[in-house]
Design a protein that fits this description.
It contains 20 helices and five strands. The chain is mainly α and 530 residues long. The chain has one domain: Alpha/alpha barrel (Glycosyltransferase). The protein has a three-stranded antiparallel beta sheet. Strands 4-5 form a two-stranded antiparallel ribbon. The structure holds 2-acetamido-2-deoxy-beta-D-glucopyranose (6 copies). It comes from Helianthus annuus (Common sunflower).
Length: 530
């Protein structure tokens, strides 16, 4: 019974396979139940990514209209479409001795110095803000204004770079300037210029200027391609200058080191290269910031604070873009790994500000705390990076940021940025708005020559100090000024001679304009600037 035998034998095989099949079904089933349960738990934890509400937030819109005006307050040169009643033309002769027109640009702070290093940084941050949040600015009718302010600086920077390897980095002498208390419109003091060149190099200031011009070339690309190309050309030449003649500008020219002394130039080299990458799409610049110089210059893994002196945190966030959204440029595996290092360091910075104390030092009122001088710079600089980073997370649908065993959603990162903006706008123990002209209670004694002197005053350089000494509030509103800010104990002394707390700067306003633009409404950031 061949067939029967076969049947028997088949039958036993069948039993065997049935057993295997049943076991397999049980094992796979159990496993899939576990996976299914985990999946559901995860889904339960994150029903979907929390997102900010759409629509314009009136508070941030109002604050943005105030904030952008500080660039008008600070303008040097022959004013166009002047928005500030008490301002007039000034600095018209700047650069004349060098046969240059350096009349435009912005005064740095409460004096009438034009310092190229922080002025270019102001332009870079403003350009970045426009690139990320131009649509938001447009929604509240501030885009054109922001672009005009940026161009007022880049017009100056173009003229300050009259030939290869020469960059004018300062107009005015702080010793002469600070011996006077007068309006810029009536000033008659000498305003000497200082340049860096191949014998007295300044890679930091050259690269910050290159970064500003590269970023601005993207801002103006669609509306004025000639101007955009001109900016890019200057940016590339300045970057070459910085690489060919390495040097710290305040070491090359020690006489200027009392103001905006630079702690080094390698961060600016990477910063300029990062912006030139975005402006050109040229893979050389990716190679520059990764394989060529990443290890030596980038300080991966160590978060630091964004400021006029330290560009590393800005680079980390800007290059995270490439990691979040990918690139059309061919990049190697090692370049890609190095780009990851930038993103990991940006994440570490976000964690530093998100994690509770002591990791993250804050005032009792909730302000990120780094340093007493211009304390707000660090808080709003970090908050600007936080809102940008949170938008990269939203746009790439990245649900979490992992911080030391804790999970943060993009909305948590945005809320950190909100908390810093709200602190500045008056949600703080002093109930004081540190944005001049916003709210009911803002500083009345801002350390600012122009704002403190009546427009019809009869004083000049020396007797003008009576306006510094005056116990009356400033007669003119330095609208949009973001003052230095509070002490660690959240208090503030509203006194005109308190330059540590009461002096505003243009880069504070650039950070704050960027932060407010991020918060004023919500939409996906653009995937590519080009
Ligand atoms: C180079 O810059 C230094 C420092 O500003 C200046 O003293 C010198 O005159 C400049 N060189 C030339 C050739 O202009
Ligand atoms: C700030 O406002 C709160 C609430 O209105 C009030 O309780 C507090 O006393 C105010 N603080 C100061 C310093 O004015
Ligand atoms: C300047 O002098 C004129 C004439 O003496 C006077 O009318 C005016 O009030 C003075 N301005 C100020 C701000 O003191
Ligand atoms: C302003 O105050 C300083 C310090 O008290 C004093 O030396 C100076 O003479 C005063 N200047 C004017 C113009 O009132
Ligand atoms: C706050 O801190 C500053 C600077 O350390 C100090 O001068 C001031 O007295 C402190 N104020 C209060 C109310 O503790
Ligand atoms: C302002 O403060 C500086 C530095 O503390 C001091 O040297 C100067 O005398 C003060 N000026 C006035 C007018 O109080």
């Amino acid at each position: 019974m061949e067939s029967k035998t076969k049947l028997t034998s088949d039958s036993s095989e069948w039993h065997w396979w049935l057993l295997v099949a049943v076991i397999a079904v049980l094992v796979v089933g159990a496993a899939s139940i576990t996976i299914w349960r985990d999946f559901h738990e995860l889904r339960h934890k994150v029903p979907r990514i929390r997102r900010p509400p759409g629509g314009v937030m009136q508070k941030y819109s109002d604050a943005l209209h105030v904030s952008t005006q500080f660039f008008d307050v600070q303008k040097s040169g022959k004013l166009e479409n002047n928005r500030i009643k008490w301002r007039g033309d000034s600095g018209l002769e700047d650069g004349k001795d060098d046969n240059l027109d350096l009349s435009k640009g912005l005064y740095d702070a409460g004096d009438h110095m034009k310092f190229g290093f922080p002025m270019a940084f102001t332009a870079t941050v403003l350009a970045w803000s426009i690139l990320e949040y131009g649509q938001h600015m447009e929604a509240v009718n501030e885009l054109k204004h922001a672009q005009e302010s940026l161009k007022w600086i880049t017009d100056y920077l173009i003229n300050a770079h009259p030939s290869d390897n020469v960059l004018y980095i300062q107009v005015g002498d702080p010793d002469i300037d600070h011996k006077c208390w007068e309006r810029p419109e009536t000033s008659t003091e000498k305003r000497p210029t200082i340049q860096v060149n191949s014998s007295y190099p300044g890679s930091d200031v050259a690269c910050e200027t290159a970064a500003a011009m590269a970023a601005a070339s993207l801002v103006f690309k669609n509306q004025d391609s000639g101007y955009s190309k001109l900016l890019l050309d200057h940016a590339q030449k300045l970057f070459e200058f910085a690489n060919s003649y390495p040097g710290v500008y305040s070491k090359s020219i020690p006489s200027i080191q009392d103001y905006y002394k630079s702690s080094g130039f390698v961060d600016e080299l990477l910063w300029a290269a990062s912006w030139l990458y975005h402006a050109t799409g040229d893979g050389y610049y990716i190679d520059y910031v990764t394989v060529m110089h990443g290890n030596a210059f980038a300080n991966w893994g160590n978060p630091t604070w964004f400021s006029w002196d330290n560009k590393l945190p800005g680079i980390q966030v800007l290059l995270s873009r490439v990691n979040f959204f990918g690139t059309n440029t061919q990049i190697s595996i090692i370049e890609n790994m190095n780009l990851q290092m930038y993103r990991r360091t940006a994440e570490a910075l976000m964690c530093t500000v998100l994690l509770p104390p002591p990791t993250n030092k804050k005032t009792n009122g909730g302000l990120i705390w780094v340093n007493e001088w211009d304390s707000l710079q660090y808080a709003i600089g970090s908050a600007f990076l936080a809102v940008v980073f949170s938008d990269y997370m939203f746009a790439s649908k990245t649900p979490y940021l992992y911080c030391n065993g804790k999970l943060y959603e993009p909305m948590d990162v945005r809320e950190l940025a909100v908390s810093q903006a709200d602190y500045v706008l008056g949600n703080n123990p002093m109930n004081m708005s540190y944005l001049v002209g916003y709210g009911l209670n803002y500083p009345q004694y801002v350390h600012h020559r122009g704002a403190s002197i009546p427009i019809d005053a009869n004083t000049s350089c020396h007797d003008g100090f009576k306006w510094l000494n005056s116990t009356k509030p400033n007669p003119n509103l330095a609208i949009g000024a973001v003052v230095g800010g509070p002490f660690l104990n959240d208090t503030y002394i509203d006194s005109r001679n308190n330059s540590m707390q009461a002096e505003p700067t243009t880069y504070n306003s650039a950070f704050f304009v960027g932060l407010l633009s991020g918060l004023v409404t919500s939409s996906s950031v653009v995937i590519s600037f080009t």
